[in-house]
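Q: Can I see a sequence and its folded structure?
A: Here is a first one.
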Amino acid sequence: MEQNLAGEPIALDGASEVAGLLNSAADPSPAIPVAALYTVTGGNKNGLMDQIQTDFQPRFPGKQPPKFPDIEPNSFVAYSYLEASIKFPLPYNQNEKPFVFTDGSGKQTEIKSFGIPVENRNTFYALRAQPRILFRGESVENGAQFTYAEFVIDLCSNSSPNQIIVSKMSAETNLAAAVAHVENEIRSTPFTEVRGLSPDDSLLVPDFNWFISHHFSAFEGKTFANGKLKGQRIDVAQQDISFRLDKNGAGLQAESELNATSAAQDYCLDGPFLIYMKKRGAQMPYFVMWVDNAELLSPWHPATGETQNPPDHPPK
């Protein structure tokens, strides 16, 4: 029923440039946890729509299976869905105040965030051991606190199979260069400098909760030039991505009161930053996002002090 194109170069009439880029790119599928990814390709006349409806819901019960109402009986379909998630053993604290994110153009937006806010300094000792600071650049004094122009943090050092990395950094030319820069900084950091948060440190990370459906218009309507599929037209080339990141919990039950004299450090993702997920120990991440503006961040609701997630992007 399903026609597997894995390992076979794509040849499309009228889309040679895009097909060439895909054929030359590294295959990320071995680095993606099996439970996170669903892909299917094949002809609609072979019952592909029924297969998707049957297979999809048990694997992703919170997401409705995709529908293609205008598809022709003889259409060829390529569909993939990635649902990336991670569970923190210890939930972070929800920031009860609006967190100001300043985008690349200087525009400021109040958003929802989690972590260990400034007012929780000297508390939550166990939670401070959960993240790992993998790299710190030069620090800059800001009143009684110090901030870093660049830092890299593993939000949960013992998570498995997934690892989630956030990095406040300058923009690179592309995502691959950004990830390479971060990984190089991690490798160059001596093991003795990798640590959790100190008693006076604070950490704030923007909340994410979004769904995006994207159609690859450069493929849709084109026909295959491959041998077995020659003449077969692609009517649908669609990718859906759902991503959520938050404190993952209503609160932390155990807390410890500590006093320390070390200088306070703020690790706040209050400006453009990189976030990526990968299998722990893998070379290639399966999800990378450069956050340059607040479009996909969860906005703060100013009227009540509560927060609302941005609406899902409806499928096109």
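Q: Show me another, different protein.
A: A second, unrelated one:
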Amino acid sequence: MSINADKPHLWKDDVAASVDLFNAWFLKFAPQTFRETRAKTTELVKNALASLDNVRSITPDVLRKQPGVLPTLRMSTAPPIARDRLVGLAAVSSNLVSSLEAGRLPMRMPAAQLDQQLKLICKTLQRLLDRDLFPWLERAAKPTETELYRAATIIADRLTGAVADPLIRNAQEQEQLALIGKYLKARGYVQEAPPSGQDLAKMKPGTFSFRLNVPVAEGERRVNIPIDVVIQPKKPHPSRLPILVEAKSAGDFTNTNKRRKEEAQKIHQLRSMYGKEVRFVLFLRGYFDTGYLGYEAAEGLDWIWEHRIDDMLQLGI
């Protein structure tokens, strides 16, 4: 029996309620997270600028000793450039740039090639440097404390979005899982993983688990896919298969429609492995429009809205 997938007359109102719920949460949580992240990032940028002699020394030697300064340098250009743009402009290895961004040098790149590519990166960054950020370069003098702080905060602002967004997404996911856990515990469920780790049929009645890797078939081989919540009802399904829940949170409509095939692929993999009896539902908060819902319904997926969590009772919980 469907929960929401077969009720398109409710979708429009549910979308509006879900958007309101997300916006209220974002306005409460995101500003503080952004401020805290910006403060930490500003200190990191100030340290990076110091290691670069306040951008007067953008050299391969500096990148070898302090590879983690590359994000600061990318945000010091006009315009600021993304990793892939730097790879294309400098004509260097994407693996090199990824390694530098992670704060290390690539392990297998020959020394001569590394030196050449670091020179190309430095040349590109120097050419694009946003000199309005660093007025002391024109007068060949030391920067004032005010100039340094201003430059560091501007660069930090450019970096903060990239740093804060994953923190906000992670907080959303953690809050959704905590909400489901609280809901289940209030109904007498116990958090406990399946005895053998991945044998879903052996999961004890009245238990649930978070972040479980579930084996599925992919061609002729088996792979594990992560499932956010696995719930074995107190009265299990005749197949003994538990309920599988994917928590989804989104802050805009565009990304959800871009990624809607991911959930459809998961349910096809699960059904291929465990049969049509598998119960896989989405737990939604935020910007999921009727186009997204229609696509998922057509693929055989159902969902529960966070703002109406009691719909979980229809799963036999």
